[in-house]
Amino acid sequence: MASSPALNKVGGDASVAAESGSEEKSPPAKNSVKHNVYDTTIRSHSSGSGDRFEYSGWVFHLGVNKIGREYCHFRFLTIRGKYLEMYKRDPHENPGTKPIRRGVIGHTLMVEELGRRKVNNVDMYALRFYNRLDEAKKGEIACTTAGDARKWMEAFDHAKQVVEYELSRGASVRNKLSMEDEIDLEGHRPRVRHYAHGLKKLIRIGQGPEMLVRKASSLSGNNVETYYDADGGDAVEAHEWRCVRTVNGVRIFEDVASSTNVKGVLVKAVGVVDASADTVFEIVLNTDRQRRYEWDALTGDLELIDSINGHYDVVYGTFDPRYLTWWQSKRDFVFSRQWFRGQDGKYTILQFPSIHKNQPPRSGYERTKINPSTWEMSDLSTSSSANGARCLITQTLEINPKGWFKWRNKHCPKFEKTVPYALLSQVSGLKEYIGANPALASVFSTTIVHSKSSDLSGSNSEFEDAEGADEFYDATDDSSSDDDDNENDNKEEVNKDMKTKLRNISWAIAGLSAKRASEQESSVLNTLVSPINLDSDEFHGTMRRAKDELDKNCWSSPDGSGFMIRGKTYLKDGMKVKGGEPLLKLVAVDWFKVENCASKVALHPKSLAQFALPSAAGKKLPFIFIINLEVPARPNYSLVLYYAADRPVIKSSLLGKFIDGTDMYRDSRFKLIPSITEGYWMVKRAVGTKACILGKAVTCNYLRQDNFLEIDVDIGSSSVARGVIGLVLGYVTSIVVDLAIVIEAKEESELPEFILETVRLNRVQLDTAVDLDQ
């Protein structure tokens, strides 16, 4: 994908290496992806005003040059505060090296995981970043591991938090940032300025791009406080798991509810390995035969036959029955793999039996179906001060109950020579394989080095330029000559003391008890005003309300007891409790089909907002909250949810600040908690129960008018979200989905959280959607 032509000037409280006369070393080879090491570092600048973090490391910059030729350049990126710099050499090893690009990471920046792709025949993990207000401003970078891609996303997110904090400081800062946001990406590379910095502590991971052993970075500072929720999910788990065996240190569970199912029993193997989730994820996806032979007794012979996108592929495999079963004929199989990473860092891999036109049954082999299964990998310790990484691995699959019950009750030896047992044994194989290869456990280890003040000292300074600083989205066209990249750099410096304090934020979720719901409501809605009667019969959307739990193609509004949210003491103990009644009432739901994704639905003539809100019932509503979920499909759909408040919203409350806040503020607070209460288990595992900050995952647009706020959620803006919603749509007629909306609380004064809204969608029929375009 082509990159925009500029990553431009910076300012603010950033810090870079001061210039010196040291001779530069030779840069890494250009246009090559053979390097498998990034020297990625974190710098934490401690001062009276708080900590500043530096994120830096090697990446591959991808793009298309002016003559249409794709390029892949090895580049060193550095993020300090809200500023980003791109170098051809590591400036810490080559003092005096000048950045070839600089730019501001603005609050409208979106970072999307594109998943795995082939770059010069090497598997890499690509990230796309773009301005959500102008997608023409975009660019791509790639990393050799999923772990590095995740950490760069965290670095960009941290930079956006810096912007959020600075915008909260007052009008003068907002005016300055608005000048920095003025960007011209069409011109030549702009002048750049240098400034000094102070550095107290250096956390260095890896030894540089010339090393042969891959060591990835840990882009989280030692001072970041992390909290863990109690059960790993933010919706009450529908399954009740019981441990029935422990084999080679791996626990085998069965779902109690499914044990009475004549069609299949849900079983899972759970183990802990001494490696990070990033490492385990890459081991499981890797199709290298020699590596898989060391831990995988069933799918060791895998061949990639098709790559659909960065998050989906199809593989072909064979196995010899002599090593596993009593079958005489050799077996082959085809299955698809779909994977994604949640905002909590957990990886999920879905594996389905499949067919593919390029891989018909092979002569001499009998085609068999591999049981549908899922992998889940989540870190048990994310603090860089922990003694080594540890990861919880869960593999879940559906098994024919006949053989399973025999093994569970009588330890039938025949079951141990079946495909399901071989799948369950993969967790044991991984545990032993990683234990026998200590290098895998230390891949993401960190080293702390205290720098000398004489080497890395100086005053804090800020970029200032009459032309204003440009915002970084991209990007750059790195195809121009290397000899004159920095000839026009402006070396002028403007020193200024910066006194800022960015509070580290933990994004884990925890709770509000139901008994405190009324107390929370009084702090959000004006209780001095008499509530109005919200009669749902006065509002009619295109989707009808459910008559009972067995009703289909309808909606209802459950209470919040099925969701876990942050409590009053969350910042102290990380505890969460069940939510209470929703603050706003769901009055109607529209289900539309559209040619193109529809935004600003409230202004459309067919919208309920145009029929009901101007009416007597609508005019007396103190506030209406409208959520438009734009569902990518053929055709596209829009699920529009209308919520109403029975009292005016207090302006100074968390909800009031959200309603009248900036888009950046809303993006950082708008949280969705999903839960599939009924439906195919694979869909449940794909959707999960973890809360998602929607503004960080997909593009959200906001329309604030009169007495309503509309949020247009573009699910199609994320390739991961598109993949998950595509799976859900395949089973939508047989599933029941619960959703809860929460405005995330980050300060103690904002706690406890409250359930803002809920909706239950019962077995939705796609063909009943009303055409919005006609």
TrEMBL record:
Domain START, chain residue ranges per copy: 241-419
Biased composition (Basic and acidic residues): 488-497
Organism encoding this protein: Salvia splendens
Name of the protein described by the UniProt record: START domain-containing protein
Compositionally biased tracts (Acidic residues): 472-487
GO molecular function, one term: lipid binding
UniProt xrefs under InterPro entries: EDR2-like (IPR045096), EDR2_C (IPR009769), START-like_dom_sf (IPR023393), START_lipid-bd_dom (IPR002913)
Location of region: Disordered: 1-37, 472-497
